[in-house]
């Protein structure tokens, strides 16, 4: 019986032992023990002293950046507004304890209660202040490893290259700097063997800008300043500007050619030419609103509109002289130059071309101009010829300018990308 009793009771004993061990493992420290450990660690603790037993050593602050969103890329004021937080980690030799003795692995301290590196946004625009705030808690493990996650809206400077607007890429940097300490005292650097120093945290896609790539680097060892820089390679999404800006500009260039189609007697020729010219001026002002005041870089799209305005001025000048010639008295003789313009117009139209064929083995076509010297050319013919020649000349200019600007923008877009 005793043997059988031991056989039946041994499984129960094993279960009881396991339960006791589990209770012992899950039973953490009490609130009093937490308070005692915190007060013990903070006794004689100074937030003004670097957390090193040997003050000749260097505090290494490892950092990474988590991007939550790109709020705005302000091209006019050349600034980048982002939301995200830094992950900063360092060893505090004054905040270490025996985990086995206290049965506590992690403690949390407010930012104002322990030492933190005076990290600031170096290329900020608005305020120059330390990261974080009094309500932030820092995590501290038993080996003295401190982790700080200050979450902020960052406004940093960003040089905007407007050359290929709106098919442009921008590289913006966000630089964090230890303001008071030299690199020998506090070395702000990147996490070792971190393949992605810029990561995302609940990232919200921007409707105008997309992220092509990210990068980061710490200041070289030879420099005295301790800082780390995170780089965002951004690419503009051009669909909005294609639909609302580029397409109307191209269509206006086509519509302007109709100035030379409208008859001179219609009375709307000059007003139509002026309306198109002023429309280009309006679009130039719209583009200027989206671009910074910059003499070093010039937008190719702005140059294209200026060229269009120059062509528009030429159109107005030609139309003005054409209308004056159209209303000249018929008694005035048509000069040699204007007769030449009419000849060119009739040659291009082939309305007065005489065709003669000679058969000598093969059929050849010989085209000769009719001798207009004996024909009648009036000022109405001159006006019509000016319209015809100007239409095709401006069409060639329009196609050439459009081809050059599109090829340059797309070529630059592919080169940057």
From TrEMBL:
Name this polypeptide is given = Neuronal acetylcholine receptor subunit alpha-6
> Where does the Neurotransmitter-gated ion-channel ligand-binding domain start and stop, copy by copy?
37-238
Give the record's GO CC terms: membrane
UniProt family annotation:
Belongs to the ligand-gated ion channel (TC 1.A.9) family.
Give the bilayer topology: Multi-pass membrane protein
Location in the cell: Membrane
Chief subcellular site?
Answer: membrane
User: Keywords in UniProt for this one?
Assistant: Ion channel, Ion transport, Membrane, Signal, Transmembrane, Transmembrane helix, Transport
Q: Which organism is it from?
A: Magallana gigas
Q: Which Pfam families match?
A: Neur_chan_LBD, Neur_chan_memb
- At the top level, the lineage of the source is Eukaryota
Spans traversing the lipid bilayer: 239-259, 271-291, 303-323, 391-413
Instruction: Tell me the leader sequence span.
Output: 1-28
Q: Where is the Neurotransmitter-gated ion-channel transmembrane domain?
A: 245-334
Q: What is the lineage of its organism?
A: Eukaryota, Metazoa, Spiralia, Lophotrochozoa, Mollusca
Q: Which GO terms describe its molecular function?
A: extracellular ligand-gated monoatomic ion channel activity; transmembrane signaling receptor activity
Q: Which InterPro entries match?
A: Neur_chan_lig-bd (IPR006202), Neur_chan_lig-bd_sf (IPR036734), Neur_channel (IPR006201), Neuro-gated_channel_TM_sf (IPR036719), Neuro_actylchol_rec (IPR038050), Neurotrans-gated_channel_TM (IPR006029), Neurotransmitter_ion_chnl_CS (IPR018000)
